[in-house]
Amino acid sequence: MKNEVDKNYTIEVISLKGDIKEQEEDVPSLYKVVLHNDDFTPMEFVIYVLEKFFYMDRARAIKITMEAHLKGKAMFGRFTQDIAVTKISEVMDYAKLEEHPLRCSTEAM
């Protein structure tokens, strides 16, 4: 599963004269998904969340978790606004259910 939108996405349009022209489609704005560090959520839980909700392999999930731990936050995905908000909502709901104060947010690119 790809987490990014291909900015080179184009379609071919045939004019009435039979000429083929390329027209660029409107590319939706992308938003960064950011993981924030806190002193209460266990790292193993954060790694699990990244694997489960963002389909990361374990090595990448550990790297993102450590970056958030050391730098205070880590950007780990670029999505359209609807997908970013939905993913964050799922993560926050799951963290709340498990009684962890994990925080994620979006930032415009």
Low-confidence stretches: none
Count of structural domains: 1
Order of helices and strands: EEEHHEHE
Q: Give the strand order of the largest sheet, numbering strands 1, 2, ... along the chain.
A: 4-3-5
- The averaged pLDDT comes out at 86
CATH class group: Alpha Beta
- Strand tally, please? 5
CATH architecture grouping = 2-Layer Sandwich
Shape: globular
Radius of gyration of CA atoms, rounded to a whole number: 18 Å
> How much of the residues is beta strand, in percent?
25-35%
**Helix- and strand-based class?**
alpha+beta
CATH homologous superfamily descriptor: Ribosomal protein L7/L12, C-terminal domain/Adaptor protein ClpS
Task: State the end-to-end CA separation.
Answer: 21 Å
Write up this protein.
The chain has 109 residues and is α+β, with helices and mostly antiparallel strands. 39% of the residues lie in helices and 28% in strands. It has a single domain, classed as Ribosomal protein L7/L12, C-terminal domain/Adaptor protein ClpS (Ribosomal Protein L30, Chain: A). A 3-stranded antiparallel beta sheet has the order 4-3-5. A two-stranded antiparallel sheet has the order 1-2. A hairpin with a 5-residue loop joins strand 1 and strand 2 (20-24). Helix 1 (43-54) crosses helix 2. The two termini are 21 Å apart.
